[in-house]
Amino acid sequence: xxxxxxxxxxxxxxxxxVALTFGLVIPALSxxxxxxxxxxxxxxxxxxxxALAAADYSTVHGVFPASTTAWPGRESNHSWTAAxxxxxxxxxxxxxxxxxxxxxxxxxxxxxxxxxxSMICPDSYYLDPPSAALPILRSDGSAYPAGSSFAPxxxxxxxxxxxxxxxxxxxxxxxxxxxxxxxxxGVPTPRGVTSQIRPKDVVDGLATTILIxxxxxxxxxxxxxxxxxxxxxxxxPLMPDRPDIRTVIAxxxxxxxxxxxxxxxxxxxxxxxxxxxVEYALLTRDGGxxxxxxxx
Length: 296
Known about the structure:
Shape: globular
Number of strands: 7
Largest sheet: 5 strands, mixed
Strand order of the largest sheet: 5-1-4-6-7
Distance between the termini: 79 Å
Number of helices: 8
Oligomer: single chain
């Protein structure tokens, strides 16, 4: 029996299926097998875009975004990343997000569960998938509801303080807390009640004050506070990798250093061996230290 030839329509369907398959498979392969230089470059580009979006936010609102909306007595705990969606040209996510309910409310689940490439450093998540072992905590130390699960994030705000005993307490003792650029408002401190920071409040200079840093691990880009949207100061920006501190302080899987974005939108790769005084100076917006770009 003679075999029927393939019709033009059938051929077009086959070509479409093959093209669709390549379109889905090739990007995944290129992402998973791209070299460390390409992953580093993508990570630096991500953090630069976030810094520029935060700067755009400050132009519109007159202040930088709050690192988190949480403070004692308030549990909304929204992160700065949610606040800048419009500045990242993601009005769809901004409009779908309800800031009037807690960040973990089911009403926000379609947003806080969105895995966003712009929030993820390829190096961190290629070399070491994030941990979900630690409980997600509110600002008062209580745990989030059981089952709360957020899409990952690799970038955190410099709130300019340290909470972690043995690590951040040195910065807190010598510089105080809430000395960064994106800080939670409404917190009583020895320097007064905190409020969102204006560009002119960064008196040490936008180009020499850190705005955002990388994290090895984070409990989610939508998680406000120390384990998510903020990073604590530590004696070095690249501390030894330990599961109990990796969600709290800055860090990376790049060799020897960490990407940081500054308040002017620039990005610098800072060595883990930076002098501690210089590092602390870069984390404070108004410390009065004279820092040259040749120092880091």
